[in-house]
Design the sequence.
């Protein structure tokens, strides 16, 4: 995986302090921590309803001392923003073409020398959708890493890491269980999130 802001010395420390101070000033509370057995993991990013989710996710990641990479639509990686987005941990995804993103992501997690948390929004879009994509699930299954149920609740101003979920291979039952966990959380645009 490419070098990101999370692995850049000094900048990382400064941004951790600034992120914690900003979140505290805005009334946000960080909860949980990454369990020792989940240094390599797939993190669900939900609810995902606004462009503001990315800066808040980055600040939360600094605050919780994570080393995240995140997936975003390819259009936000166009010049001149591409290098910056990649440095922020971004991985461009082209939704219109079929590719082997699951296998490539799983292989990258397995090949990483150190801790790596791949953040994936299951909705696949900021717009309202009832259908969650299962890419995050199959990435975790193939990489043989846990899924960490990360959340951001704008209504209560809490964000953090919930329980660790080990995929069983029964995708239907597992997705129902994961969605139940997310049902109480409210995105920035609450009407756009449906975990039912």
Sequence:
């Amino acid at each position: 995986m490419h070098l990101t802001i999370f692995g850049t010395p000094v900048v990382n420390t400064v941004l951790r302090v600034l992120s914690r101070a900003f979140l505290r000033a805005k009334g946000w509370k960080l909860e949980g921590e990454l369990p020792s057995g989940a240094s390599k993991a797939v993190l669900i990013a939900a609810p995902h309803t606004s462009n503001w989710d990315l800066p808040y996710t980055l600040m939360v990641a600094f605050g919780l001392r994570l080393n995240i990479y995140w997936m975003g639509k390819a259009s936000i990686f166009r010049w001149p923003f591409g290098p910056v987005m990649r440095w922020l941990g971004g991985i461009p995804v082209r939704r219109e073409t079929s590719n082997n993103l699951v296998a490539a992501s799983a292989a990258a997690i397995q090949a990483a020398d150190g801790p790596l948390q791949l953040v994936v929004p299951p909705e696949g879009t900021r717009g309202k959708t009832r259908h969650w994509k299962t890419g995050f699930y199959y990435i975790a299954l193939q990489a043989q890493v846990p899924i960490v149920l990360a959340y951001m609740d704008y209504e209560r101003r809490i964000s953090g890491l919930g329980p660790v979920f080990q995929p069983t291979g029964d995708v239907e039952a597992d997705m129902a269980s994961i969605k139940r966990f997310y049902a109480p959380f409210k995105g920035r645009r609450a009407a756009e999130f449906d975990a039912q």
Notes: Confidence is low (pLDDT under 50) at residues 125-129. The domain at 5-192 is CATH 3.40.1130.10 (Glycerol-3-phosphate (1)-acyltransferase). The chain has one domain: 5-192.
